[in-house]
Amino acid sequence: MAARTIAIYGKGGIGKSFITTNLSATVCKTGRRVLQLGCDPKHDSTTSLFGGVSLPTVTEVFAKKNLQHSHIQIEDVVFKRRLDGFERDIFGIELGGPEVGRGCGGRGIISGFEILEKLGLFKWDLDVILMDFLGDVVCGGFATPLSRSLCEEVILVVSNDRQSIFAANNICLANNYFNASGSNSKLLGIIVNRDDGSGIAERYAEAAGINVLMKLPYNSEARDKADSFDLAMRLPEIERPFRELTEKLLNGELSYCSPKGLSYEEFMSLFGEISGNRPASASFADLHLASKPEVDIDRLGVETIQNLSTIKSAESETQNGNALPKQAEFEPNEAEKTPKKPQPKALSEQEKLLFCIEQLPPLERDLISLHDIEKKSVEEIAIIKQLEQADIRATLGNARKSLKRLFFEMD
Predict the structure, then answer these.
(1) Which pLDDT value is given to residue 385?
(2) Catalytic residue selected from 40, 76, 127, 136
């Protein structure tokens, strides 16, 4: 039987890893086989489960194995520990991400899931997989479980502050969008962490049609437990609400929400009266510019592709990686290929590149335009074109090879 998959989203610093860790431990305490999957570039989700040890991340291991031209094994990225007083091991993985300023965190999440799926993640003998996700980043990579239905259920962690609730509302809107596109992820509700009794989060939940699963008051002893890499659920006053939530979760007593997700105006009106005055537009004179600059929208698409190296660097890391098995390339139908058009003269490198894109077969041309010019993710393209993501990546790889060849043939 496939594991039950639950994604837990929350604004950075709101305590989502604290909630995920103690929920994982409480579920494990019932005798279930639990995996906690850290999906935050900070890779600190599982720290308390493993006594303060930082687990090797999937991203780090992939980079190392790629240099060694060797393959990733399960034991390279999956770790286990028997916690004091527990009868079963608990499992942990950290996806990780790029070094600060050196890459895209969302792309790291997507690549990490690709690797774990190749290792059979959803076929492992587990009862529950809890995914700990950063919830205040709009990048599509962090929405991977929602867009691809990798999680069956979603829990949002908030506090009684506008910023954390705003992030939760964005996740609701994203989940509604993906559900309309065929995703099956369902929202269970919100957990109010560090509850101060003000009722702000509950007021939002009522307006948005979301269940309140648990309210956890601030507790300095619980904070000290977490800071010393221990479990707050060892404290009776913390164990009780987690146990009650776990029982409802495992016994199927929680109903799914049908949240509408609030518009910006609806959301802000929960916190106060919005000004009816329209902001005044600033002019170039206000900014002390000598002349009025303008942006040529028609030209903007060309200028966003700076040179061929941008296209090359955009290739999927896992597609080119030596650490993964080679995949059969998806070959487009020969009948789709179009004859080359006459080559124009005196083109810039950007214009050459766009000309080369026009020479590609229709499918390759469409996908490279969507991905590299319009900056759409593979998940979005899969929905637009109704194609498998693996086929899209393979076709993009073929398109880039053809682009390189066509580009240099023009010199």
Answers:
(1) 74
(2) 136
